[in-house]
Amino acid sequence: MYAIIATGGKQYKVSEGDIVKIEKLDVEDGSTVTFDQVLAVSDNGLKVGADVASSTVTATVMGQGKGKKVIVYKYKRKSGYHKKNGHRQAYTQVKIEKINA
Description:
By secondary structure, the protein is an all-beta fold. The chain has one domain (2-100). Helices cover 0% and strands 64% of the residues. It is elongated, with a radius of gyration of 18 Å.
């Protein structure tokens, strides 16, 4: 069984037992998070729309972290303009415990 959840402006396909890195949530390690914005659930047949309006996905927070550094480099020729910047995206690592369809 899998579900598609929406969080942080992104969509994730998850199954029970999966460990997923999602956009940072302001929660503590070990706490439980419930995702109520479930877009689709599939066991044998696919359920979407009004069929999954009351579905939820429960997950446990495993930790917080930062992703790999991405280098952003801006350059304009002939003018001597160049700017180098780095970015590390913050994430929350969660383990999917239960899909309530």
